[in-house]
Amino acid sequence: MSERLKRLRQKAMALPLQPGVYIMKNKSRDIIYIGKAKKLKNRVSQYFGSQNNHAEKVRAMVENVEDFEYIITDSEFEALILECSLIKQHRPKYNILLKDDKGYSYIKVTGDKWRRISCALQKDDDSARYIGPYNSGYLVKQAVEEANTVFMLPTCSRRFPEDFGKGRPCLNFHIKKCCAPCTGKVKLSAYNERVEQALDFLSGGSSESLRKLTAQMNEAAENLEFERAAALRDSINAIKRLADKQKVIQSKVKDQDIIAYFSDGNKACFEVFRFEGGRLCDRQDFPVDVMGDESSAREEFIMSFYASKVDIPQHITLDGEAENTELLERWLTEKAGKRVYITVPVIGDQRRLADMCRQNAAERVAQLSGTTGRELSVLQELAQLLGLSQLPYYIESYDISNLSGTENVAGMVVFENGKPLKKAYRKFKIKSFVGQDDYASMNEVLRRRFEEYLAHKDETEGFGRLPDLILLDGGAGQVSAVKPLLEELNLQIPLFGMVKDDRHRTRAMVGYEGEIAININRRVFHFVTTIQDEVHRFAIGYQRSRRGATLKSSLTDIEGIGEERAKALLRYFKTLKNIKEAELEELENAPKMTGQSALAVYRYFHPKGEESDQ
Asked: How many C-beta neighbours within 10 Å does residue 530 have?
């Protein structure tokens, strides 16, 4: 421990066991972090002990701490209010600081003859008409997309009438998302009628639009304008389908915020869904520094998010627990002037919405990390289920295959970022013994794999890269066979077996401390089953290829039987036993065989002694 840390720890140990706020400063006396504590001595001294237990962000902060100050308060609640006030005032580098720079959004309607509807963040000095402003950019974007889709308005970059007939209609025309004015076959009057209907939809909502469109459709039908009536009918049906789709993200709790957190260990993000009247009216994502503890991260985010807001809903739903929930509820209640509840749903529609919110946070992290949110999400669920300290980005899985104790082989498959990495697959032929012993085989394969690692550990690919997780096709026996090897090589790699039921379906995972059921988590169950099926397919495929090579090699020992004839014989008779028991006439009728080659095969399997007995 450095002299600086020793000095800071000695100062922290002298703090009182009372609630308060602590203020971390760097060499320039700038405030870099502000926190609160129920007991100042206990909380602050943790920063200056062993650095191995801290998250990367905390370690970085501690490295820059030169001194700290503290303020004692009468209660933990007062400490929370003071902490929030000081953070707003000083905006320290290592606290979660959220930028609210989205501004206002507008619906833009161009001023030319062939009008377009789009969303805009600001008014330009042009002839366009702007509807707004609106607080929610998400809501404006969603509404404009819905209007353009329902009324089949173009969203491409083509200009009308300049680009009439210059190219084929795009995909949107074929999937009935655009009326294709680019063909030059759409009348301007009919097009502008669609635009007016879209604007009515945007200003009056779906219910009012349905009423007006239904009346227009009936009128058109009475006037025998069947083509126009059919177009109106299609718009009515599109609005109804849209309403059914929106029900998926409706909430029985009319006004609430849903907050979810996702981290892949390198990047992190908070997602907020805001519901008004039971409908999703806004969504925002906030990339943040990775926090060591999710519950404290949620507490800090809630304080930062609502610090400057006046429209605080009565219900705030979280995807996981937050620290000091009661204090946060009290603070939010006083700030909002009404009772505010913070809940963490376990089942039901609220849990589904929280999971959906978390999935969106995962998608944002995936964009930052260059992968997909679905894959990151299932890796996190797997890590939580198995109690892993980090996400298993790089998974190796092993399976043994043999034929009644012969042709012992093993297969290794690799999944990186939740997807098969086929260039990293490897095949092993068991060398250390003859006969059937799956446990000894598994031990040999893993030993050879990690011997290769020790020889190539300066490399970052192939055997030079250690896995984040090892999955064995088998139960406790396979795990017990490999565990001593990892201990011998001092490798701290999580190790689990994949257990199948009587029908050879994945049932559970087994580690050092027993079985873990995975069928309660559908996505993890599907992911692990995929890995187990893939490693089994790869291992047994290698074993069969080895067996086929052995059979072919025994046939090619016969005079006149080459590689092609050996393959043809095996395809025709299926097994070496059938070839051996075949009559001479059957061999002559086999593909690619001649009378002389058939006789050679027959005599090879029926020496003269056997022939004389027949």
From this structure: 14
From the list 391, 393, 413, 390, the residue with the least C-alpha distance to 401 is 413
Length of the chain measured in residues: 614
Contact 12, 39 (CB under 8 A): no
What global pTM score does this model have?
A: 0.56
Tokens 């873990």: give the residue.
Answer: 516
Q: Is 168 helix (H, G, I), strand (E, B) or coil?
A: coil
- Give me 479's structure tokens: 């795990």
The answer, yes or no, to whether residue 545 has pLDDT greater than 60, is: yes
CA-closest candidate to residue 292, choices 389, 385, 393:
389
- The DSSP letter of residue 311 is -
* Two structure tokens written together for 431: 């060398």
Tokens encoding 595: 């009378």
Ramachandran assignment for 18, one of left (phi > 0), alpha (psi -120 to 50 degrees), beta (any other): beta
**292 vs 278: CA distance, rounded Å:** 34
Count of helix runs (H) and strand runs (E) in the chain: 20, 19
Does residue 32 sit in helix, strand or coil?
strand
Considering 36-40, 59-63, 218-222, the range whose residues carry the highest mean pLDDT is 36-40
Rounded distance between C-alpha atoms, residue 195 and residue 200, angstroms: 9
Domains and CATH numbers, the chain: 3-90 (3.40.1440.10), 108-248 (no CATH), 256-370 (3.30.420.10), 392-520 (3.30.420.340), 556-613 (1.10.150.20)
Q: Which residue has the higher pLDDT, 109 or 211?
A: 109
Q: Which residues in 6-145 belong to E strands, given as ranges?
A: 20-25, 31-37, 67-72, 105-109, 117-120, 129-134
- Helices marked H in 13-75 — which ranges? 40-47, 56-63
Residue holding tokens 């000081």?
86
3-class SS of residue 80: helix
Contact 105, 120 (CB under 8 A): yes
- Least Cα distance to 120 among 111, 131, 112 occurs for 131
Structure tokens at 128: 């366009």
Query: What is the number of other CB atoms lying within 10 angstroms of the CB of residue 38?
Result: 15
The position carrying tokens 């969603």 is: 142
Cα–Cα distance for residue pair 147/156, rounded to 1 Å:
15
